[in-house]
């Protein structure tokens, strides 16, 4: 029996001529939860992709139970019983839950036809073990993001993996779902499975992990036992400096009402919501998963059908909201689904950054986009947001780390300097240093008179940047708290009310 189930030895990897991993060596033990942290672009996902057979290392090697391990494809990793739960989900939205669970290993009956009965029965049992009371026959496209994430985890557990790599697994989960996930991870540990846990949520790392390694700029900074570290130690190792404050302080003025929403309805999730948003104000919306937060802003923006209510923006009535019309009015929207709705994944970084600005900079007659202007604007955005990209014209959005993808989405909309910015989970998958930078840009935008509407599952984040927080439950606003009176217990009590009143 080898001490380490998997060893990575002096791993190096380059993209577009730029080395992104500089001789990293890691060792994972069976029956251990191993934490891997670092800023966006530090190399965490690249290491995991090498383990998972997504692409090979340029040099160095790996040992699996003391024997040479060199996967060429993800199937090689699966055959070695190594499961990889990506930050961005790998589910087929047009298939059922059961079909997704067994897509790599469809069970057959006696006549060699797909055994759907077995899939539904065993898949349903696995889902229940994770605390999910959903039908195996449900279409994935009909499920919220958090439920989809748990389906992905169930898919990995079905293969009886001996090593499971989790890349930001809790970013789409409710507190209850996260508790089930943690219980599952602890049970996996007790059964001898090696768990590698990548997360920007340091509280989760301290709660779960036995050892923690920190990467910075593609190099291993250090590995320590969890009890030897505190949060400040990890942050310092990650960013190379101490962060004195988690949230920036910006002096700004709140002006007149810019947006008025009255009795907006978008069944079945939104049951009559009203709010006012002022220039220079950052207004947060908090609620538990399923409260209707995302559905509310999608209806206001015209992404989903609006069935009732009225919207007044900048003195003008919006009868039938539509994204194109909202953009022309100066309203920007950062979706929680950056891959599906926020980015053109096969396009390079500079194309994505300039996407929303093209009409503004194109020449009036010929509609030609000047390259010099594009270069200047995208260079500024990359610098301000510290986007880790080796070549903005060659590197595709799909090849960025999850956090850097999110920063490209934020940069795209901030480039417009919108009158109003709607953000749905704006810092999901973003490291602690980059979060501060995004907060600073948001607050600076508000200081210049823009209005910001921010949805977040992180209560602390909303309390750190917002002037007011509206709390939502069961499709209605149930409470409102103002800066200076923020209290986690009060906010959570409103979130648990069940929508008995509308704020």
Describe the structure.
The chain is an alpha/beta fold. It folds into three domains: 6-239, Rossmann fold (3-Layer(aba) Sandwich), CATH 3.40.50.300; 245-330 and 419-440 and 448-503, 3-Layer(aba) Sandwich (Rossmann fold), CATH 3.40.50.300; 341-415, no CATH class. The chain has helices spanning 44-51, 74-79, 97-101, 116-129, 145-158, 175-190, 202-208, 231-239, 293-301, 323-329, 338-342, 349-354, 358-361, 371-385, 402-414, 432-447, 459-465, 488-495, and strands at residues 6-15, 18-28, 33-38, 59-64, 67-68, 82-85, 163-167, 194-198, 211-216, 219-225, 257-266, 270-278, 282-287, 308-313, 316-317, 331-334, 420-424, 451-455, 468-473, 476-482. The strands form four sheets. It has a six-stranded mixed sheet, sandwiched between helices. The protein has a six-stranded mixed sheet with strand order 16-17-18-13-19-20, with helices on both faces. A four-stranded antiparallel sheet has the order 2-1-4-5, with helices on one face. Strand 14 (308-313) and strand 15 form a beta hairpin. Helix 15 runs parallel beside helix 16. The longest helix has 16 residues, at 175-190. The protein is globular, with a radius of gyration of 23 Å. The chain starts with 5 loop residues before the first strand and ends in an 8-residue tail after the last helix. The model is unreliable at 499-503 (pLDDT under 50).
